[in-house]
Amino acid sequence: MTDRQTFIDTARRVIGIEARGLVALGETLDGSFAAAVELVLAARGRVIVSGMGKSGHVARKIAATLASTGTPAQFVHPAEASHGDLGMVTEGDVALVLSNSGETPELADIIAHTRRFGIPLIGVASREGSTLLTQADVAILLPKTEEACGTGIVPTTSTTMTLALGDALAVALMEHRHFTPEHFRTFHPGGKLGARLLKVADLMHAGDAMPIVPETTPMSEVLVTMSRKGFGVAGVTDASGRLAGIVTDGDLRRHMEGLLTHTAGEVMTRDPRTVPPGALAEKAVAEMRDRKITCLFVVDPSGEGRALGILNIHDCLRAGVA
Predict the structure, then answer these.
(1) Is residue 185 part of a domain?
(2) pTM, whole model, 2 decimals?
(3) Distance CA 264, CA 145 (A)
(4) Structurally, how many domains does the chain consist of?
(5) 282: domain range?
(6) Same domain, 241 and 164
């Protein structure tokens, strides 16, 4: 029978060792990190990220993080680079090369290529005086820390530090460029993150799909509009075209006696809750849930109060907005 506590103790030991490595990394960062950020900001092209083995997997993630946060980046496999892919690394680019030892043989060609064509090179390694760090324009030395495997053989703490360093680089670039969630949405339209960043304008129904009637409309026609459009509500506009109110199921019940003798303006609830088209759909969904309603009219933010569309909570949920 296995000792489950032993497994938990091992996990805590590993996490503790790696956490200490991250603390050491933060404490030893110096001007070389700032120089790396400045080198990327000055580049006219992309950040070419490369590494072999476990460092290669980390390099792929760093390239993906940079690309999705406003810094054009691409992973280039060092072995493939030696067989033609060096053509992907061009003047105007910056190379970010990762290697724990700094002596990975497969990196020799990509390092030489950057030196031959004057392509700025940022090297990240844990061995001072290694080939990668001595050849690099900016050398970032990882602190000497214990690998979490216990034998010092399996890359664990070293890869965690390198991954965190890549995140730090991406965030520093984001903050300098004032990268916003709206920018992130442009690079990441799919998945849960993309759904969270959908705007009201992305999901609203506009034009003829809107259930809109003038204040003077007889309630018999309002009922037809509500039924035909399928939202269970009708927006009511005044003589200037401004959204003046809304007719809901609750309004119908409150005016049930003699309902068809009234106009929309007489039945409606005035000054309904609205939302601007540029708001995040996630916030609109939160308001609809708080108020126990299923729709919000989308209004022109210029102050004229004209209805631009209607947002339905079910469309938001289908799109993954929660």
Answers:
(1) no
(2) 0.65
(3) 73
(4) 2
(5) 200-318
(6) no
Per the rule left: phi > 0, alpha: psi between -120 and 50, beta: everything else, 150 is left
**Mean pLDDT rounded to a whole number for the chain:** 91
CA torsion angle for 281, 287, 289, 293 (degrees, to 10)?
-100
Residue 196 has pLDDT above 90, yes or no: no
Answer yes or no: do 112 and 142 share one domain. yes
In tens, the pLDDT along 230-261 reads 999 999 999 999 999 999 999 999 999 899 99
Instruction: Tell me whether residue 312 is in a domain.
Output: yes
* Separation CA 72–CA 66 (nearest Å): 7
Residue 27 CA to residue 145 CA, distance in Å, equals 13
pLDDT surpasses 70 at 181: no
Angstrom CA distances, 164 to 62, 108, 145, stand at: 9, 25, 15
Looking at the DSSP bridge assignments, the partners of residue 269 are 246
CA distances from 50 to 36, 94, 118, 198, 274 (A): 15, 11, 17, 33, 49
Whether 126 is in a domain gets the answer: yes
CB-based burial label for 85 (10 Å; 0-12, 13-18, 19+)? middle
The CA distance from 148 to 12, in Å, is 10
State mean pLDDT over 50-66: 95
Is the predicted pLDDT of residue 13 greater than 70, yes or no?
yes
Strand residue runs (E) in the chain: 47-51, 73-75, 94-98, 121-125, 138-141, 212-214, 234-237, 243-247, 269-270, 274-275, 295-299, 307-312
